[in-house]
Amino acid sequence: MPSRVLVIAGTDSSGGAGLVRDVQVVTDFGARASCVVTAVTAQTHGQVAAACVLAPDLVRQQLNTALQSNEIAAIKIGMLGSAAIVRAVLEELPDRRRIPVVLDPVLSSSSGTALLDSDGLTLLRDQLLPRCTLVTPNLGEAATLLDVKVASTEADQSNQAEALLEFGPDYVLLKGGHGSGIDAIDVLAPRIGTPSLLRSTRLNATLRGTGCALSSAIAALLAAGVGMEAACRQAKAYVYRELSATL
Predict the structure, then answer these.
(1) Do 10 and 36 touch, CB atoms closer than 8 A?
(2) How many structural domains is the chain composed of?
């Protein structure tokens, strides 16, 4: 039987990101998806027209019943939207030692609209990160979580990845896709061991939902029993192919 990934995220009416992209990617990797909807957004590929978070108790019940209904092999968390939703997820989230948890810390849309309130950001950083196997921030998200300037060098990026480990996740994958170097470098920092650099040639291409795609791909690979570094490398290669197809 295919492994099953539970995706906790918001919807995107354009289909470019969020749950639609998550389910597509999980399916591409041969897994099946269960879903917990946290928010509904009205978006085009250029802007967020409206966003509404669901009732926290409904989110909590979705998560509870999803875990009861199927044998979940990995969990991917995307948009949460509010502190109340973060709390609801924390109440039902399984121990990462039983089910690997991948968090894509969605703080704003590609167009800059905030998708998590300030209290939610604090809860995510202080209480959700310690419950996660892997956290996959981009450069801007890492800077916000750490309250520092955006990393501009490879050394800064590595230092920020290791600083995020202090909040408790087992691994941090600090993505460099929003950087400016010739190569797009992601830093995979483990709590135990030394960081690894994942390099690819930077493409002159843009595609919404790449963060969703990467984290969902990693979750699907972890669900299939692939090791963390191999899962991150395979997921990065998948996103590279998706970007290349737009050129």
Answers:
(1) no
(2) 1
Contact 23, 33 (CB under 8 A): yes
Parallel, antiparallel or unpaired: strands 4-12 and 32-43: parallel
CA distance 32 to 26: 7
Q: According to the model, what pLDDT value does residue 47 have? A: 87
List, as one string, the DSSP characters of 193-236.
S--EEEEEEPPS---TTHHHHHHHHHHHHHHTT--HHHHHHHHH
Kindly report the average pLDDT of the chain as a whole number.
Answer: 94
pTM for this structure?
Answer: 0.95
Distance from C-alpha of 218 to C-alpha of 136, rounded to nearest angstrom:
10
Provide the domain limits for residue 91: 4-244
User: Which pLDDT belongs to residue 19?
Assistant: 95
Question: What CATH number is given to the structural domain containing 110?
Answer: 3.40.1190.20
> Residues 97-137: pLDDT tens digits?
999 999 999 998 877 788 999 999 999 999 999 999 999 99
Q: Helix 18-28 to helix 210-223 angle, to the nearest 10 degrees?
A: 40
